[in-house]
């Protein structure tokens, strides 16, 4: 019998002295459809519960940001539509990085029931995003990501 150990779990401290989940970095999927983006409200029992962020999470050892973001978003949203990748924004913290994978939903998508890490998901215009209670780290990078997607800051 082969035992597989999930080494993607656990907190690490980056070069800036901040604590992050996932020793191999993390990735989230910013899914666009038309002029809107899909965000997920974090469940109350997870870190920064109640805030809005991207569906995503810790990368597995050797996993690419695109594959990790797709895997995590599919788990958290109960599946994904066909998507076309657009760009990746990387926030490098010195020894740890968060990758925002920007992709287009090729058809309209209604999120399903996921793994419980999010309490709900909804579509917003970039202008609406700034008025939400955002996860602090997502709030720090939103202005850069909004420029990449052509939205307002």
From TrEMBL:
InterPro entries in the record: NUDIX_hydrolase-like_dom_sf, NUDIX_hydrolase_CS, NUDIX_hydrolase_dom
Cofactor(s) it depends on: Mg(2+)
Segments forming domain Nudix hydrolase: 22-146
Biased composition range(s): Basic and acidic residues: 63-74
Region annotation (Disordered) ranges: 49-75
A GO molecular-function annotation: hydrolase activity
Sorted UniProt keywords: Hydrolase
Pfam families for the chain: NUDIX
Protein name as it appears in the record: Nudix hydrolase domain-containing protein
Species name: Streptomyces tuirus
């Amino acid at each position: 019998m082969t035992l597989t150990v999930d080494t993607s779990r656990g907190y690490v401290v980056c070069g800036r002295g901040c604590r992050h989940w996932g020793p191999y970095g993390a990735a989230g999927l910013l899914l666009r459809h038309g002029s809107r983006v899909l965000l997920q409200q974090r469940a109350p029992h997870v870190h920064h519960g109640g805030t809005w962020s991207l569906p995503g999470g810790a990368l597995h050892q050797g996993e690419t940001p695109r594959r990790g973001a797709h895997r995590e978003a599919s788990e958290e949203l109960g599946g994904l539509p066909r998507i076309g990748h657009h760009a990746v924004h990387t926030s490098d913290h010195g020894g740890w990085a968060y990758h925002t994978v920007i992709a287009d939903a090729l058809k309209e998508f209604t999120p399903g029931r996921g793994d419980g890490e999010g309490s709900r998901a909804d579509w917003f215009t970039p202008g609406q995003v700034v008025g939400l209670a955002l996860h602090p780290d997502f709030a720090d990078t939103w202005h850069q990501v909004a420029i990449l997607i052509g939205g307002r800051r």
